[in-house]
Write a structure and sequence with these properties.
Radius of gyration: 54 Å
Shape: extended
Strand content: 15-25%
Mean pLDDT: 73
Order of helices and strands: EEEEEEHEEHEEEHHHHHHHH
Distance between the termini: 160 Å
Oligomer: single chain
Largest sheet: 7 strands, mixed, barrel
Strand order of the largest sheet: 1-2-8-11-10-9-7
Helix content: 25-40%
Number of helices: 10
């Protein structure tokens, strides 16, 4: 790990040689400014306003701008002559409870590494003293030409140091507070607590920068000459929710749904609502009931009785039989008479033969011929002779 500063920790009369290294690294994607017409790089050049020409770094110094706009030159010798006892020392001034440090004060983080084997023992002594006391050390140190405030704490087996803003650098939060008085009800607090409980804990190691990954994927796709994969659009809200209770309840339901909790309740509730709605719609907007006359039901029942036991095939055969009985019979009888029993059909057939002229078939008009026997014909002829 590359060090950016060498010095020593001053712990009373104990001096611990250490090296300072960055504890964090930035993975942010950086861009360059280019000329959109030809893709050329855009660079900043340091130009003197009086001579209007570029100046090399060797001729550039420091200056302090006064209130009236005039520049007062400051040389490196002027800065070196200032009393800065913490130039190469991290001077511990106090040990306090970590709760006393406002997170607003915390800045960059660094690791303090031992600089040489002799520093290992005093380094471990300070580390274990901080660990057992459950306190942090407040120290002053100089870095990049200015004195800073720092906090030393234990991270695993390493002493870490956070830069702290000076107390007068922290702005008052009063100006950022809401100007109107707001009353929060207990029911709203209960829902907020339920939402926090539902969201629960999170593994901080699982969090990552989605935007950076999307930018890297886009750049890789452009280098390979292909279109980047389309990103999923975030779910859009339904607009501004004025009712805070409704917003909290919806948030709790959404959090449970995302964790796979309460899905059965939601589904059952929705099923009941849908069933009630559909039942109401079918009851109010359904089709009119079909009314079947009594005679139709009787005929239907008769056909069903005659066709029972033979399945669908018997039903298909019964229709032609009825048509044949209705169309082929000269008696003009209805088709319903053909469904009578065999015994009844025999008696009816004998009566028809007696009344008909021999064939039993009707003429289509309903007139029947009278049958004449040979004996009757002879009697009629003899009677005519006697009368003559």
């Amino acid at each position: 790990m590359q060090s950016i500063w060498n010095g020593a920790i001053s712990f009373g009369l104990v001096s611990i040689p250490v090296k300072l290294a960055n504890a964090t690294v930035s993975h942010a994607v950086s861009f360059r400014q280019i000329h959109t017409e030809d893709g050329g790089r855009i660079r900043y050049r340091k130009v003197c306003e009086l001579e209007e020409k570029e100046v090399p770094s060797s001729e550039i110094g420091k200056g302090f701008e006064d209130a009236d706009g005039s520049i007062i030159p400051i040389t490196e010798e002027d800065l070196a002559s200032l009393p800065l006892p913490t130039t190469r020392t991290i001077d511990i001034v106090a040990f306090v409870e970590s709760e006393r440090i406002d997170p607003l004060q915390m800045g960059n983080a660094y690791y303090l590494m031992v600089n040489g084997a002799p520093a290992a023992k005093p380094y471990a002594l300070l580390r274990e003293a901080l660990r057992r006391s459950e306190r942090v050390a407040i120290a002053k140190f100089a870095l990049r030409g200015r004195e800073r405030l720092g906090m030393l704490r234990v991270v695993d087996d390493v002493i870490a140091m956070h830069t702290l803003h000076w107390p007068d650098e922290i702005r008052s939060p009063e100006e950022a507070a809401p100007e109107t008085d707001v009353t929060v009800r207990d029911a709203e607090l209960d829902l907020a607590d339920a939402l926090m409980d539902t969201l629960g804990d999170v593994d901080l190691d699982s969090l990552h920068d989605d935007y950076r990954e999307a930018v890297e994927e886009m750049v890789t796709a452009k280098v390979e000459g292909r279109e980047p994969a389309p990103e999923k659009e975030p779910a859009q809200g339904e607009g501004t929710v004025i009712d805070l209770m409704s917003a909290l309840e919806s948030s709790v339901r959404e959090a449970k749904r995302s964790r796979g909790e309460g899905e059965g309740e939601d589904v059952g509730k929705k099923g009941g609502e849908n069933g009630g709605e559909s039942g109401g719609e079918n009851g109010g907007k359904g089709k009119d009931a079909e009314v079947t006359s009594l005679s139709s039901r009787r005929r239907t029942g008769t056909r069903a009785t005659s066709s029972s036991g033979s399945g669908s095939g018997a039903k298909k055969k019964s229709a032609p039989a009825r048509k044949k009985a209705a169309g082929g019979s000269g008696s003009g009888k209805s088709a319903a008479s053909s469904s009578r029993g065999k015994s009844g059909s025999g008696r009816s057939s004998t009566a028809k033969k007696t009344a008909s002229s021999g064939s039993g078939s009707g003429t289509g008009t309903g007139t029947k011929k009278t049958a004449s026997s040979p004996t009757t014909k002879k009697k009629t002829a003899s009677a005519r002779k006697r009368s003559a």
